[in-house]
Amino acid sequence: MITQPIFIKHKGALIAVRPEEIIGLRTDRNYTRIFLPDEKYYLVRATLTATLAKMPPGMFVQTSRTYAMSVNYIEKINRDTLIAAGEEIPIARGFYEKVLEKLVVIL
Q1: Where exactly are the structural domains of the chain?
Q2: Coil vs helix vs strand at 64
Q3: Would you call 25 exposed, middle or buried from its count of C-beta atoms within 10 A (0-12, 13-18, 19+)?
Q4: What is the bridge-based pairing of β-strands 6-10 and 40-44?
Q5: Could you say which of 11, 14, 81, 89 would form a disulfide bridge with 7 (CB–CB 3.0 to 4.6 Å)?
Q6: What is the pLDDT at residue 43?
Q7: What is the pLDDT of residues 33-63, one digit of tens each?
Q8: In whole angstroms, how far apart are CA 37 and each of 40, 52, 85, 97, 102?
Q9: Contact yes or no for 26/32 (Cβ under 8 A)
Q10: Architecture of the domain defined by 6-102
Q11: Residue 91 host element (H or E)
């Protein structure tokens, strides 16, 4: 399913990015990095919460106060980490159950 693009302000222009291309988000206070394939990212002035609110529902899962990852790129999940697009991402103590609730899990 192709979703409507989001527009990211970058160097004075608005760049169209499809949400399904976004690997994940990482915040540092009032800034969020939006990671795309090929190690490319955009830095936006917005909190993680504000950025997630503009994304399609159910497409991203927050793994800590710092990270949110696209469910489309998650490859493996352990209790305290997950692998997304080949990168190890921490899962904070209180987030593991919330991560599982957002995913389709067959036991």
Answers
A1: 6-102
A2: coil
A3: buried
A4: unpaired
A5: 14
A6: 95
A7: 999 998 899 999 999 999 999 999 999 999 9
A8: 6, 19, 8, 27, 23
A9: yes
A10: Beta Barrel (2.40)
A11: none
